[in-house]
Specification:
This protein is 37% helix and 19% strand. The protein is an alpha/beta fold and 256 residues long. The chain folds into two domains: 38 residues; 211 residues, Alpha/Beta hydrolase fold, catalytic domain (Rossmann fold). The protein has an eight-stranded mixed β-sheet with strand order 2-3-5-4-6-7-8-9, sandwiched between helices. It is globular and about 45 Å long.
Length: 256
């Protein structure tokens, strides 16, 4: 009888232990899901950049934020995929800066703020703007991975790719594609952006640019980027460098 009671007691401890492990696992999983679905906090400049003026007209919808320059308007258009957990409006100041130079620019919203969940979302933008003859897709971080996937899947409709602190997972080396890869010097993932493997997967004439003293977060106007060193260059200065490099690629594709 005593042995039987000890056995039941032992089993009870095991069951309680397994239940505790299961509960902790579920709490950890739910915590991870909550973290993943909680968007990054935006800075005031993000929303301010969505106000139209005489230089750029801004139209906000559920699927995209369109920045249309008053004039002159190029036949080259840019579609931007946001980084993970960052609402599209977080890139509005950068998009507006590019549009002010004559290039229609579109920020696409993503389900759960995760571009990999809607890699083909740029198709709707392209279909809605037949006046654009040449398309470039850009993306920040995970958004860049998704943008590269879209370019890989749609070789006939994408002529340029801009990777903002990102890299492709597809082999684009044989593609007739204008590519720019740009990142901050302090970005902890910078080795991936300029690795031999990354270079081998992109066209030979890809331009690689490292922004001195720049970091990952300052590609947008948001805060809270995990494990990101503090940049020692201002956000405005880093954004200007990104915009100028991106505009140079757009200009290279412009029809005289």
């Amino acid at each position: 009888m005593v042995s039987r009671q000890r056995q039941l007691g032992w089993r009870g401890w095991v069951m309680r232990g397994l239940a505790s492990i299961l509960i902790l696992g579920l709490l950890g999983l739910s915590g991870g899901v909550i973290w993943l679905l909680t968007p990054q906090s935006l800075l005031p400049e993000a929303a301010a950049a969505t106000v139209s003026d005489e230089i750029v007209a801004v139209t906000v919808s559920d699927s995209e934020i369109a920045f249309n320059p008053a004039a002159p308007v190029s036949k080259v258009g840019l579609i931007i995929y946001p980084g993970a957990k960052v609402p599209a409006v977080g890139y509005a100041p950068l998009a507006r800066m590019i549009a002010s130079r004559g290039y229609a620019t579109y920020l696409v919203s993503m389900p759960g703020n995760l571009a990999l969940l809607a890699v083909d979302r740029a198709q709707a933008v392209q279909s809605g703007h037949p006046e654009i003859a040449t398309w470039v897709v850009a993306g920040h971080s995970l958004g860049g991975v998704a943008a590269a996937q879209f370019a890989s899947r749609n070789p006939a409709s994408v002529q340029g790719l801009v990777l903002w602190a990102s890299y492709p997972i597809d082999d684009l080396s044989s593609r007739d594609l204008a590519v720019l890869s740009i990142w901050g010097e302090l970005d902890r993932s910078r080795a991936n952006f300029d690795s031999a493997e990354t270079r081998a997967s992109l066209p030979a004439d890809t331009e690689f640019i490292e922004i001195p003293r720049g970091n990952h977060e300052q590609f947008g106007y948001y805060t809270g980027q995990a494990n990101d060193p503090i940049a020692t260059v201002s956000r405005a200065e880093q954004q200007e460098t990104i915009a100028e490099a991106t505009i140079a690629l757009l200009e290279s594709l412009s029809v005289p």
